[in-house]
Amino acid sequence: MVYHCRCVSRGVHHALLVGDMPFLSYHISVEEAVRNAGRLIQEGCADAVKLEGGKDMAETVRAITHAQIPVMGHIGLTPQSVNLFGGFKVQGKEEARARSLIEDALALEEAGAFAIVLEAVPEELARIITEKLTIPTIGIGAGRWCDGQILVINDLLGMYSDFTPKFVRRYANLKETISQAVADYNADVRAQSFPAKENTFAMDATIVENLRKSEGEKRAVV
């Protein structure tokens, strides 16, 4: 993730670069979490870090922010914990779970998070959380009332067709476009229509002739 952040940072001019802390990079201990968050900032050139979890991660968030590193929270469906949920399922539909997510959001804000991602939660629950917080909420599958929205770029561009979450709107169908382009390229190579003359670089005819003569003389001597 340090490598990926560093690559992205080279092209960033205005956007906020948030490094997503990988699984187990912040779970072992608070000290290790702070150290790894620092690596994303120092080596990865990120502006902030993001980690998953609510009340259980409040102490970690507090420690990282105490180290002067901005933290974005992430609650609801947290992909790194998907096995605990039994799959990719909407979170917070039951009252007890909804109340727990509200408590998670408030705990993260109190711990110093500057924003929180709400993923795959009912729209009205996301609205309640957004209204309760003083920090921004960023929704992904959390409806219309969040302060901002995010989609995975592969979903937005339609690069997959086997599964599309309900909350995704495709703005392109690149899977079909890419598949057809690769098939056309393969066919052209097999038919020897690519590369064509216009895809090649020319060389001075005199040099070509000299090369042919010298190479021919070498073969004759052998």
Q: Report the mean per-residue pLDDT as an integer.
A: 95
Instruction: Report how far the terminal alpha carbons are from each other.
Output: 56 Å
Number-wise, the strands total 6
Instruction: Estimate percent helicity.
Output: 40-55%
Q: Structural class of the helix and strand makeup?
A: alpha/beta
Strand arrangement, major sheet: 1-2-3-4-5-6
Order of helices and strands: HEHEHEHHEHEEHHH
Strand content: 5-15%
Shape: elongated
Main β-sheet description:
6 strands, parallel
Low-confidence stretches: none
Can you walk me through this structure?
The chain has helices at residues 2-9, 30-42, 58-66, 82-85, 95-111, 123-132, 153-156, 174-190, 205-221, and strands at residues 18-20, 48-50, 71-76, 115-119, 137-140, 148-149. It is an alpha/beta fold. Strands 1-2-3-4-5-6 form a six-stranded parallel β-sheet. Strand 4, helix 6 (123-132) and strand 5 form a beta-alpha-beta unit.
